[in-house]
Design goal:
0% strand; mainly alpha; transmembrane; transmembrane helix; 9 helices; 311 residues
Amino acid sequence: MTLENYAQISNYAVASATGILALAFVAYVAQWGFARNLPADRELVNAGGVEGPSTGADPVERSDVAGGIGLSLTSLSTIVLLIGVVTRGLAAERVPWGNMYEFGCVATLAALVTYLVLVRVWDIGWVGPIITGFGTVVLGASAMVYVPAGPLVPALHSYWLVIHVLGAIISGAAFLVGAAASVLYLVKSRAERNTPEDKRTGFLWRIPASAKIDQVAYRVHAFAFPIWTFAALIAGPIWAQYAWGRYWGWDPKEVWAFITWVVYAGYLHARATAGWKGKAAAILALIGFATFVFNFVGVNLWVGGMHSYAK
């Protein structure tokens, strides 16, 4: 195949993955919707539908079917997006994360893989709507900054850039899962405080208790933080020395990477030393994710700096 063929396949695959992921989001929302009137003692099956085939004869079965469809579509979207990422790399003859479009595609792929793995390990199917919804938005927004496959500028020709960006992608995928868990923690904990026992119906009472959700959020952030530390504060400065002759220059992207690190460091430090759990910790985690997203989107599009060629 020619490089143009690979590029065309990549474009079709990414567009298809976006559509499939949007359908997965709709299926997950339907799963929650079918469970809206179920009492709290009817346990909702996770997104994997582990109880087996269902006929859809009652709300809980329809909910299970929708969840199983959502997981299947998420898996299919992940496979198709992987094809798109690989063929993009073949078309460009390099690693496929050299600009905003490519970063968005690979970051979404990493987030979906992380989610699918954790569905099996920790049974976190309850974050499916947030992960698929956010992933659809990221892929759609990435298409708006699409650039044709091609070589990188000379400053990006370094294996330290490969390591730096790959670390940011992996940690960002975990930060997304942690943010999704933090959002659901805030919603569930408030419902636990304010909803009488006899009124606890719907999807919110099919997901784990807020304490378990909070634990998942903490574990995911504890995994992601060391990777972000290495990517942003070690590999990044080493690449900067190679590209610009200095390790740190307070470029806007460097500043926001450091702000993200400080926020997440504060979150983990408070959790570990002061037992700082609950609403305040969840809000701090969401602030950290907001700084991460702004670093990826806002700095590149509106602030600029020496990283502006990565658009």
